[in-house]
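User: My instructor asked us to take a sequence, write out its structure as tokens, and then describe one feature of it. I'm not sure where to start. Here is the sequence I was given:
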Amino acid sequence: MRKRVVISPLIAGAAVTVLACPVPASAADTPVTVQVSSGTLDIAVPSGPVNLGTVIVSSSPQTVSNQLGNITVTDGRGGNTGWTVTANAVDFTGPQNISVSAPGSSSYTAPNASVTGTATVTPSNLSALYPPAPVQVATDVSGINSATWNPTISLTLPANALAGSYSSTITHSVS
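Assistant: Let's start with the prediction itself. The structure tokens for your sequence are:
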């Protein structure tokens, strides 16, 4: 007796399709990465000297003031870490020393900074130029940013200050 085998066209078509699609022998993935390096956090200040003013000797205290010139912080780190600028000065020297550390003896008035990029920069005024204290603080930082401001520096000369030329150095640092 012979048996008849009938193959359905649907099954035959599926078998041909499976045989027609080659199966890879094996597959593997290769991870790919890229590194974006951080830049620097820098500060630029006027080269000076900056003249705060001229007064005539007096039996009363006198105040001189002038703008220092543009201070610029450039944050090229490309992250979201904020930064703080501090400022301070040493006593004025000349025919006599004039202190900058007593409140009211000197001041640093920090205006709002002109900001590029993404950062919220908040100014702080100093009522004395010593000890070092923050004058601009950046928060809400994202990516590359910069800030520029032009502070006003004031010095109160004591009564009966000796005639002559006086000098000091103002130091800004950013971290």
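For the description part of your assignment, you could build on this observation: The longest helix spans residues 9-20. Try explaining in your own words what that tells you about the chain.
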